[in-house]
Every structure is written in C-alpha cells, then in structure tokens.
Specification:
The chain has about 200 residues and is mostly beta strands. It is about 15% helix and about 45% strand. It starts with a strand and ends with a helix.
C-alpha cells in the first residue's frame, strides 16, 4: 500500500505525489487506486515513476477501469490462505509477536476462505465470540514463509445446521508483518486482474 495525493488529472489518468514507499513500484505495475471522497476504485498501470529531491515520488497512473468501491478499507476476495490459530490473552499475543513459542491446541480451518489485506473470515469447528483474541500462523502463496500475526474476532455468523463448522468468524488483523501485508496486497491485485 502506498499513500499519496493527486497533483493533476486528465482524461487518461492522473499524476500522483507519493510517499517514499512508492519506490517499491515499477513502471508497468498494475495497481488499484482508491481516492478519498470518490465512490469508485480505479484500476490502471503505473506508466512513469520518478524520485524527487525530497524523497517523495512522482507517479503517473493511466486508467483502465473504474469500479464501485467496497465499503471496507480493502476488497474482500476468496483464495487459499493456509493458517492455524488459537485463542490467547494479551500477554500470550505479545510473546507470540516477540517470537516465543506458544503451546496449546492450534486449529487449522479450511484454507479456502474470504480474505482482505485487513483480515480473514473462515468456518470454525468451535464456537467463537466477538472480541476474542487469536494467535495466527499464516502462509500466502506456495513459496511463502509462515508469518506470525494476531487478530481479533469482530463478527460471528451462523452456519447451516448440516455444516461441520460451529460458526463462521470474521477476524481483523491486529498485528501483521509488513511482508505478509504486502503478500496479501499482491494476491489481491493478482485475483482482481484475473477478474477484469
């Protein structure tokens, strides 16, 4: 994710003044652009990129299409996200993020789940409640390392009576390594690109 401001707009696209994080972008990269106050998301290509003297970047964005915005910060999609989780308290969460091993019963839900850069939703074999804190191990992609994250149950949904799951739970990430966030963002762009 790269923050920036619109400096100029025309019929083909727009120019952006972006933070130093834009240095990770490349000319030809396909991106999804969300502009505060506009009701549509835009997909397009970075057609020019140059670093300015103050470390910011000038980015030229060429439109492909515009799409109605999702109400969430990030679009929700479906993909295989292998993960394991367990309930925890704040002390265990801090120890987990610090790299300590945490014993206990880890649960591995079906990896095909609803996801976004901000969280996941999966079917749980046991009842869960809003506000519960989870330790999470997750992988994104075939060659992915296993990342440590924490999340909070933000919503619990009923499942059909014949389902082997006890509920479906929406989890918002509280702590997620930047590399994992970037991998989720890349996966989002790849899936969206196949849908266009």
């Amino acid at each position: 994710m790269v923050d920036g401001t619109v400096s100029q707009e025309n019929d083909q696209g727009l120019n952006l003044r972006c933070s130093a994080a834009a240095g990770r972008l490349n000319e030809g990269s396909k991106v999804v652009l969300t502009i505060e106050g506009q009701s549509e998301k835009r997909t397009g290509t970075i057609t020019a990129l140059s670093e300015e003297r103050d470390g910011h970047y000038s980015v030229e964005f060429t439109d492909h299409q515009k799409h109605a915005s999702d109400k969430r910060d990030f679009p929700r999609l479906h993909a295989g996200i292998p993960l394991a989780y367990r309930l925890a308290d704040t002390g265990q969460a801090a120890a987990w993020i610090a790299g300590e091993a945490i014993a206990g019963d880890w649960v591995e839900p079906d990896p095909y789940m609803n996801f976004s850069v901000g969280g996941v939703r999966f079917d749980s074999p046991h009842a869960m409640e809003g506000g519960e804190l989870l330790l999470i191990k997750l992988r994104i992609g075939d060659d992915s390392p296993t990342w440590r994250a924490t999340g909070r149950v933000v919503r619990v949904f009923d499942v059909p009576q014949d389902s082997p799951a006890a509920c479906s739970a929406a989890i918002s990430f509280e702590s997620l390594p930047i590399e994992a966030r970037d991998a989720l963002s890349d996966l989002t762009l790849k899936i969206q690109d196949t849908l266009l």
